[in-house]
Amino acid sequence: MANFIRPLVRQRRMNNSFVYRGHPRGDYMRYRAKGKMSDFGIPYGKTTLTCSIPDTFHVELLSPAPIPPAPDPTRAVFDALDAPLGEFKWSDFVCARAVAIAINDKTRPVPLALVLPPLLQRLSALGIPDDAITLIIATGTHVPMRSHEFPAIVPAEILARYRVVCHNCDDRANLVELGTTSYGTRVWANRIFVQADLRVAIGDIEPHHFAGFSGGVKPAAIGLAGRETISHNHALMLDPRAYQGRYADNPLRQDIEEIGKLMRIDFALNTVIGAHKEIVGAFAGDPVAVMQTGMPRALAVYRVPVAASFDLMIVSSGGHPKDINLYQGQKALSHAAPVVKQGGTIILAAACPEGSGSQAYEEWMVGMTSHAQVLERFAREGHHIGPHKGFQIARDALKARLLFVTEMPTELTRRLLLTRCESLDAALALARRDLAPGARIGIMPVGNVTLPVISDE
Questions:
Q1: pLDDT (tens digit, 9 = 90+) per residue, 373-390?
Q2: CATH code (residue 150)
Q3: What sign for the dihedral angle of Cα 112, 114, 120, 126?
Q4: What is the CATH number for 374?
Q5: What is the per-residue pLDDT across 114-149, written as a single tens digit (0 to 9) for each?
Q6: Which of 58, 85, 175, 408 sits in a 20 to 30 Å window from 194, CA-based?
């Protein structure tokens, strides 16, 4: 770490306009003063993009806090399993005849290779045979993963021993209706999961742009729900309290909690991971108790105070898999926009090798000619999964000019009303035309999870 800190200190002495608000760790967080310019790097897909910024601007790097990773991450998971939070007791599930475990799909960097083996060992110690356990890939409304993709997220030795299936939110034959939440959400859920004796949700706890936080029951309550359920729940995103970092008074998140209760989710195994996907905390037990204990740790990692709004924000979705498609990459935009000035500029860097990630979104955008038209149509037709991405992007693009650095084809970005730039330097050159000396520039290397908050709010 010292090798990163020393150059950083030298640069601060040379350039009083640079402020570091984060953790100088990782090959994309590089700083090199060269005359009157400084270099910065951000993750992009499975590589890194760099740019040079003149020292005449006030630059702030907004990055997760320097909380050290667990020295032995596997031991941390075992310890969490050995002392479950809340009222959960392993003894209640001795010799369970069927166990269902919800795991995230390829769009989430959950360290399954570290968390699954300890959990499966615990289940084996309870006398539960391998063939009684099913791992269900919780895709929500994402495109279901095919079996040949499973090795990308599930270790080979686990695939060889246990049944692994993928959820399909549109397969009504494999859904069970469970009732209606107090928010009016009819709950349809995965039949295999609901009919198990022990129901487990595995995921990460991190800020979410409208659910407040991921984690707890969410991987199963949303990831294993039917499309109708997810769509009605996500319509609550229009409530101003459905906001990143809000939990207790967030109607969308509390609806998720009610869905989880109707699904009778018994157990959550969650991690909080740092900017480089290392485990900094592991939590297991009753899902609500896991959230109450894990959220403060997540905020300690991801919440970044800033003094004022920015004229320009350069935000990366965090690299693969956070920018596997625009459906995921857009989340970084939602986190950055609140701390950008009205009329400012946002440069979003998201590789998106799998395109938009939503055919429904692409089809809905056909014929749209302006972001204002998108908002008008969305308000007229109401919330729908897929088109809601168009709404979220339009909302932020009307506040600040949006420049998009991506691998997506130019024709597709044009149809989605996005201004595509060929490189980060090209986007920065375009943005600098409107910046006066001393303008505030923010850089968010892992925007999907970073939670910038203006200090006086």
A1: 999 999 999 888 889 999
A2: 3.40.50.11440
A3: negative
A4: 3.90.226.30
A5: 999 999 999 999 999 999 999 999 999 988 999 999
A6: 85
Strand ranges of the sheet holding 99-104, from the earlier edge strand across to the other edge: 163-166, 133-138, 99-104, 198-204, 267-273, 279-285
Q: Mark which of 300, 324, 358 sits at the end of a domain.
A: 300
All residues at 6 or more sequence positions from 116 whose CB lies less than 8 Å from its CB, including other chains: 103, 135, 154, 155, 158, 202
pLDDT at 138: 95
The pLDDT tens digits for 403-414 are 999 999 999 999
What's the structural domain count of the chain? 2
| Residue 364 sits in the same domain as residue 397 | yes
Which range among 9-13, 243-247, 277-281, 282-286 shows the weakest confidence by mean pLDDT?
A: 9-13
Q: What 3-state DSSP class applies to 99?
A: strand
Pairing outcome for strands 303-306 and 451-454: parallel
According to the model, what pLDDT value does residue 266 have? 98
Whether residues 399 and 332 share a domain: the answer is yes
Q: Are residues 245 and 317 in the same domain?
A: no
Token couple for 437: 């000396």
Question: Which parts of 55-141 are beta strand (E)?
Answer: 58-62, 99-104, 133-138
Taking only the tens place, the pLDDT of each residue in 26-43 is: 333 444 445 577 888 999
Backbone region of residue 255 per phi and psi (left: phi > 0; alpha: psi in -120 to 50; beta: other values): alpha
- Residues 287, 335 share a domain: no
Residue span of the structural domain in which 338 resides: 2-66+307-454
Q: pLDDT, tens digit, for every residue of 293-325? A: 999 999 999 999 999 999 999 999 999 988 999
> What is the three-state SS of 199-256?
EEEEEECCEECCCEECCCCHHHHCCCECHHHHHHHHHHHHCCCCCCCCCCCCHHHHHH
**Same domain assignment for residues 164 and 114:** yes
From 265, 300, 335, give the residue that closes a domain. Answer: 300
Tokens of 210: 């409208």
152 by Cβ neighbours in 10 Å (0-12 / 13-18 / 19+) ranks as exposed
Question: Strands 198-204 and 186-190: what pairing?
Answer: unpaired
Same domain, 83 and 187: yes
**∠ CA 372-377-382 to the nearest 5 degrees?**
130
Residues 104 and 202 both lie in one domain: yes
Q: 168-184: string of b/e by CB count within 10 Å (b at 16+)?
A: bbeeeebbbebeebebe
Q: Residue 435: is its pLDDT beyond 60?
A: yes
Average pLDDT for 137-162: 93
